[in-house]
Design goal:
The complex is a heterodimer of chains A (about 375) and B (about 350).
Chain A (H helix, E strand, L loop, with lengths): L12 H17 L5 H4 L8 H9 L18 H14 L4 H17 L2 H12 L5 E4 L16 E4 L2 E9 L9 E7 L11 E7 L5 E6 L8 E12 L3 E2 L5 H13 L9 H13 L3 H29 L5 H25 L11 H12 L10 H11 L4
Parallel strand pairs in A: 1-4
Antiparallel strand pairs in A: 2-3, 3-7, 4-5, 5-8, 6-7
Chain B lengths: L3 H17 L2 H8 L5 H9 L18 H13 L6 H14 L8 E3 L7 E5 L5 E11 L6 E6 L2 E6 L4 E3 L9 E15 L4 H30 L1 E2 L2 E2 L4 H28 L5 H30 L6 H11 L6 H15 L1 H10 L11
Parallel strand pairs in B: 1-4
Antiparallel strand pairs in B: 2-3, 3-7, 4-5, 5-7, 6-7, 8-9
Helix pairs in contact in B: 1-3, 1-4, 4-6, 4-7, 5-6, 6-7, 6-8, 6-9, 7-8, 8-9, 8-10
């Protein structure tokens, strides 16, 4: 009957026990943070904080112990993620590595690569960035052109990546490059590389984003030499590897909780200045929030069982980014206050920031239109 | 949704509805003929009282198990008060009132126009009108909650003013005069339990509408290709599919919560979310099916007219949103997340096999 499969589940006692510890840690460590700072969500960057979370054992939670992991369940990891997001913890220094780069290496990396990299991520010491988009290749990722050519002692990289979050801070990039061209198979000939960002020939140029932050960058490669052992997985199979990686990127609670701070501020504002319209709107938002959490939790439970809910993850991401994107608009329509970055009012400052931040939510990690195309394929329409 | 009883109930409901709910069932039902054969089959197969314990003649299932039956009833637009009977039976069993062997109906507590009093012998008597009773003309009893009681009203002897919802399902006004009724203490509200079943029916109906729209898009040829090949259609159907998935998850979440006792939060969320999804689902389905979907000849209307009716029954989206919003605002932003996560702590066992 159903086009998609979601198993509604509850969290096991060990996950709820962990929630209490995580919550108490954030309460203490983040007590100095303002709602505006918390609104930066998983874009907030703080290496010291990432090290502290690692010391608690909360990075690489599900990974094998031999790679510095803790061999806990995906549901325990899920609890850490959602509590971090709601607390507005500055997790950006480890988020991408923990979510995407580590699992990619576990799936496709060599034993040597795993030993070299994963323990550093789990200690909160290695920052990663992802080099996918190029100036002429966004949603049409298969059109990317930056070449990696075989050389005597490895690979020679050229070209440019763009919109690369944290490239200016990163220790490593996982970059997708073209290693061959086949006009009949656009998705073939792509390969992934583990790139030390200190390698000569790499230039990182900051790009100021809409809210005025310097989070993402252009990364230029000029005759960058890599050794043979920097190839991840199999030459020419980068497309399939990236597709698997994007399933991780799309499945987490960060796809509906990015602007949760404005909902919390709105609820307090309406408590002080009640309106029936506001009350109804909060009720509708809570219905969506509770449903999204049930769906998101269901993905975590499927991952824990070793299933690959990539289609369901796409559904949750499309619904979730729609929710987190609409929150500032709804808040602004209900509260008769101007968004004022210097007002000193939490509501107005958070609003000022988030209305400028939310357009990216339905772009990053695959645009809304691409996601809906994937869902349409899942329905057998294309 | 993986245990044996759920699978059995799902298969039984799907098979029976698939075999017995046909085009002629609907035309007969709209002409006022009670589908006796269908109802008897549902009773014989134990689908009418799944929540009642085995020793009391039920299937001993949970709300979580029973979700599949109510959803399937919505999917197949089943023209009998099966969800009402399941919900009413549950309320009666919780109050210790004997469950009659007949179709049962369920209404919200009426706000005016009736009185419930004790006579000299201490027996309960009902006077006045019970409004818009689902299948009032076909059921043996109407059940509703009133203050802290569950009330069971035999329909026999009342005056029936026939009415319907926009889907043609009977919604009758029943007028009583000094009717002897049973009443016993009960915690659950019939408005809540009614909203719960309507949410699951709407989720099932949304699935049906999605299937209809997707299969039509794959068949209908315009501009030399099936309309499924157009991105505009694909994107709209993708949105519809995601809304349908959300509707189902919201409803299933509420059914699970009902097993844990107080479930007003999840039921409110389910009714609101299914209403929201229902708006998009019905509009998209009709847009994709074009003029043929805008006829009584095509069966899409069996589904969409029901969603339009059900989204208003047992509390519309705004009334539930007002409750849910007020409860959230009273607790403040600080407690919003911890309250939400606390609702999902598994107090019995971790049930996801």
């Amino acid at each position: 009957m159903s086009a998609f499969r979601f198993d509604i589940c509850r969290l096991p006692p060990e996950a709820e026990a962990l929630r209490q510890k995580v919550w108490a840690f954030f309460e203490e460590e983040l007590s100095h943070m303002t709602p505006l700072q918390r609104a930066d969500s998983w874009d907030g960057f703080d290496r010291d904080f990432s090290r502290k979370m690692a010391a608690k054992g909360w990075i690489g939670l599900t990974w094998p112990e031999r790679y510095g992991g803790h061999e806990r369940t995906a549901l325990e990891r899920y609890v850490v993620l959602e509590e971090a997001l709601v607390a507005g913890a500055p997790v950006s220094a480890h988020w991408i590595a923990e979510r995407q780069s580590g699992p990619l290496l576990l799936n496709f990396g060599s034993e040597e690569q795993c030993h070299k990299i994963l323990p550093g991520i789990a200690k909160g010491e290695l920052v990663f960035c992802i080099g996918m988009s190029e100036p002429d290749s966004g949603s049409d990722l298969a059109s990317l052109r930056s070449p990696a050519k075989r050389s005597d002692d490895g690979w020679l990289l050229n070209g440019a990546k763009v919109w690369t979050t944290n490239a200016h801070e990163a220790d490593y990039m996982i970059g997708l490059f073209r290693t061959s061209t086949d006009p009949d198979n656009r998705r073939g000939g792509l390969s992934q590389f583990l790139i030390d960002m200190k390698t000569p020939g790499i230039t990182v140029n900051p790009i100021v984003d809409l809210p005025g932050r310097e989070h993402f960058n252009e990364v230029v490669f000029e005759d960058v030499h890599l050794s043979h052992d920097c190839l991840i997985g199999t030459e020419g199979e980068g497309w399939d590897q990236v597709t698997a990686e994007l399933a991780y990127e799309r499945s987490g609670p960060e796809r509906y909780l990015s602007s949760i701070q404005i909902l919390l501020a709105l609820v307090d504002e309406l408590k002080a200045n009640p309106s029936e319209r506001g009350t109804i709107a909060v009720g509708e938002l809570m219905a969506r929030l509770a449903t999204l959490r049930a769906m998101s939790l269901s993905l975590a439970s499927m991952l824990e069982k070793g299933q690959n809910p990539s289609l369901e993850a796409t559904v949750v991401k499309d619904l979730g980014t729609g929710f987190e994107q609409t929150l500032p608009d709804i808040a602004q329509s209900l509260i008769d206050l101007e968004p004022d970055p210097d007002s000193g009012s939490d509501m107005q400052m958070v609003l000022s920031f988030l209305i400028q931040a939310v357009p990216s939510f339905s772009l990053r990690g695959g645009t809304r239109e691409i996601l809906r195309g994937i869902i349409a394929r899942g329905l057998g329409l294309r | 949704m993986t245990n044996e009883i759920t699978t059995l109930l799902d298969q039984t409901a799907t098979r029976l509805f698939g075999d017995l709910v046909t085009g002629s069932t609907f035309s007969a039902a709209e002409d006022g003929v009670w589908p006796e054969q269908l109802w008897n089959a549902l009773e014989e197969n134990g689908l009418t009282q799944p929540l009642v314990s085995v020793e009391n003649g039920g299937a001993g299932a949970t709300w979580r198990d029973s979700y599949v039956i109510v959803r399937a009833a919505g999917y197949f637009s089943v023209p009998v008060p099966l969800p009402e009977t399941i919900a009413a039976g549950y309320l009666l069993s919780q109050s210790g009132i004997q469950i009659p062997e007949s179709p049962l109906s369920l209404i919200s507590p009426p706000e005016y126009g009736f009185s419930l009093t004790k006579d000299d012998q201490g027996a309960w008597r009902l006077d006045g009108v019970l409004p818009r009773v689902p299948w009032g003309r076909n059921v043996g009893y109407v059940i509703f909650s009133y203050e802290d009681m569950i009330v069971s009203v035999p329909v026999e002897g009342c005056t029936i003013n026939k009415g319907s919802n926009v889907a043609g399902e009977p919604r009758d006004n029943l007028t009583f005069s000094n009717q002897a009724v049973e009443a016993a203490p009960g915690a659950f509200s019939s408005t809540q339990i009614g909203a719960l079943i309507r949410a699951a029916q709407m989720a099932g109906a949304a699935e049906r509408a999605l299937e209809e729209a997707v299969s039509y898009a794959k068949e209908r040829v315009q501009f030399g290709r099936t309309i499924s090949k157009f991105q505009a259609i694909q994107q709209n159907l993708a949105v519809m599919a995601s809304e349908t998935a959300a509707a189902g998850c919201a409803a299933e979440m509420a059914f699970q919560a009902a097993d844990y006792g107080e479930a007003e939060f999840e039921i409110a969320a389910a009714k609101i979310r299914n209403g929201e999804a229902g708006d998009i689902v019905t509009a998209t389905a009709h847009q994709v099916l074009g003029a043929i979907g805008f006829t009584r000849e095509h069966h899409l209307n069996l589904t969409t007219r029901r969603i339009w009716s059900w989204r208003a029954e047992f509390g519309g989206a705004s009334s539930w949103a007002l409750k849910l919003g007020q409860a959230t605002i009273d607790r403040g932003g600080k407690n919003l997340w911890s309250d939400l996560t606390a609702r999902y702590i598994d107090i019995k066992e971790y049930t996801s096999e």
